């Protein structure tokens, strides 16, 4: 028999730009090393240069996209919360569907 499942831990909010910037820095260092090798880098291994360029490009894109995405999510959550404000006590009598309770049919 399985043990009961532990509750999920709380989500830790961090500044996502820091790991994105560090990843981009890593791709930049790798690209500089590969470019510094010049002709000493075998022809069959030169595709790694494009891997580094792609990683750097995606990192720069993510650095600017993630904050924009988080702002849009916060705005959408605020808009959603404003539309679905808590109902008054009258709503409890009407039920979840918003229809009048049907008396006499049980």
Summed up, what is this model?
The chain is built from three helices and no strands.
Write the layout of secondary structure elements.
Blueprint: H1 17-37, H2 47-83, H3 89-94
Helix pairs in contact: 1-2
Notes on the protein architecture:
With 106 residues, the protein is mainly alpha-helical. It is 60% helix and 0% strand. It is built from three helices and no strands. It has helices at residues 17-37, 47-83, 89-94. Helix 1 (17-37) packs antiparallel against helix 2. It is elongated and about 70 Å long. The model has no long low-confidence stretch (mean pLDDT 84).
Which keywords apply here?
single chain, 106 residues, mainly alpha, elongated
Structural class assignment: mainly alpha
Profile the largest sheet: none
Distance between the termini: 40 Å
Whole-number mean pLDDT: 84
How many individual helices? 3
**Whole-number radius of gyration?**
27 Å
Order of helices and strands: HHH
Gross geometry: elongated
Unreliable stretches: none
Helix content: 55-70%
| Strand segment count | 0
> Which range does the strand content fall in?
under 5%
